[in-house]
Amino acid sequence: MTDQTLRIALAGGGAFGAKHAAALKRIEGVEVTAVVSADLEAAQRFATEQVVGRGVATLDEVLADKDVDAVILATPTPLHARQTLACLRAGKHVQVEIPLADSLADAQACLAEQERTGLVAMVGHTRRFNPSHQWVHQRVAAGELQVQQLDVQTYFLRRENLNALGQPRSWTDHLLWHHAAHTVDLFTYQTGSPVVQAHAVQGPIHPELGIAMDMSIQLRAENGAICTLSLSFNNDGPFGATFRYIGDTGTYLARYDDLMDGWEEPIDVSGVDVSMDGIELQDREFVAAIREGREPNASIRQVMACYRTLADLEMSLLAAG
What we know:
The chain is of the alpha/beta class.
């Protein structure tokens, strides 16, 4: 597949579905042919608001459509692995939002199916694509910087089961299997070294949500680099994640697509890639990999080390009670 229009179906009509819809419209030769949401009315409303293809009621409908080449899944976490498998079995290339799965066994099943089909299967580990983190990665790759420590704060205020838009959620988010996945994967990606030591502690379990609202994770890479990650759903303040890279030749502070030095002076990263939107760059990689018949950055194979580490951390938390 080279110059012909790539027809993509989008599953998920929430905040991240809207981000993907906007990003895909900026990529030449791509058409969003269908949108799947919670129900047909919601799907049709989303398609109208985003000015993309028709709204449909179920993922099965687009998987049976021969005019759909690929699917992007921006659906609830508990559905990710099952829907990824369904897309691959239907012969569709697939990009699934982070996390790939909420268990190691499910992640491994997705990898096995990708290897069986040979289709492009990519996970939305967006930090690999944000211009801020790309800038750091390019310095590491050029031998100009070695990361000594990555210090990360990932904070939200979610004492009720609400999504990023403040709307009721039908599923429960998770600090370990969702939000920690960003940092665990980024740490190995930026250091180029596997995690050899991982430790986690967590705070009290929320009586209604049934999850830990606070968590602390420590990692050590084979090359000696360390990572300290603090996560909370209890933080009353700005939400999101802040990444501090402490390296041998500099300190850098990244927040989504923006980058500053250790003294919080802005660094211009506008020339790093063709866009300043990490989601768009992620989608561009998915499209390019399909057209070029190659493995994408953040393929299922490449991110499996992250899910093995998450499983190890989960086991340690369960053992600690």
